Amino acid sequence: MIVCFDIGGSAIKGAVAHSADSIQPLGRRTTPLDDFGAFAQTLGDVIREAGGKPDRIAISITGVVDPESRAIKCANIPCIDGRKLSADLSAVLGLPVLVANDADCFALAEAGAGAGRGHRIVLGAILGTGVGGGLVVDGRLINEDGGFAGEWGHGPAVAAMAGTPPVAIPAFDCGCGQRGCVDTIGGARGMERLHQTLHGKALTSEEITTLWQEGDSEAERTIDVLVDLVSSPLALTVNITGATIVPVGGGLSNVTPLIARIDKAVRARILRKFDRPLVVPGQCRIEPGLIGAAILGLGGEAQ
Fold first, then answer.
1. What is the pTM of this model?
2. Could you read off the pLDDT of 10-45 as tens digits, one per residue?
3. Pairing mode, if any, of strands 121-127 and 131-137?
4. Is 220 helix (H, G, I), strand (E, B) or coil?
5. Which superfamily does CATH assign the domain made up of 2-104+286-299 to?
6. Residue 296: how many other CB atoms lie within 10 Å
7. Hey, what's the torsion of the CAs at 163, 164, 166, 170, to 10 degrees?
């Protein structure tokens, strides 16, 4: 038995896992942001709720663990930012602790229990508020020791011209400190930024996608440009990794026609040709973070 967690800046969700197919949710609690003692105590309360002593703890969390220093970068939860989270929590809780990025856990969930089943190389792509990803090979997470592999949303990769006919696209500043990242134009906030740039109108991503599906010409132009900008970096990532399936998570994954359009554009730009969908909505629609953390914890030893 393990206890797994999906931790974000708002909530801590826990579950007991005996296998990837046997995950029993526990209580949902508010994430303590500024007090590490309270943060660890909250995890301890959930563990006690599970009953019995788990073999280990596995955590899916917003943030990235440095593979050399073991320190986590997590701007959303200040009390853990910069900590060697696995070691610090293990010392307090008295249990081995595994920690992985939430996008990595999404990829692991899809590889083990979702759209990636039966595929050796699975690239999980997040199209949510921003853009992220994770990579699983032969059922193992590439970033089990931490790191940024699979993060196709960052790096100055966005084209200067996009769409049909082409239009100039500014290199927007990214929160990572670079300019022109896919993250700046590919997620929900990026879609809104593009629509504002192209049409001078401030709409939400939900409004844009709804108008697009209703046949609105301005929304169509925004989607056309977004798909063009996103598909080339994603195609390059598929070429580099050799992924044979790309499950998509995040809020935009719920817009099925958008994912189908990205899939068509990506398949037209990669070296290997597929006669089936490659970029597909993720199948783990409920708690993929917990599923991924469970698979991580059940399959690995704490670092």
1. 0.91
2. 899 999 998 877 888 998 999 999 999 999 999 999
3. antiparallel
4. helix
5. ATPase, nucleotide binding domain (3.30.420.40)
6. 26
7. -20
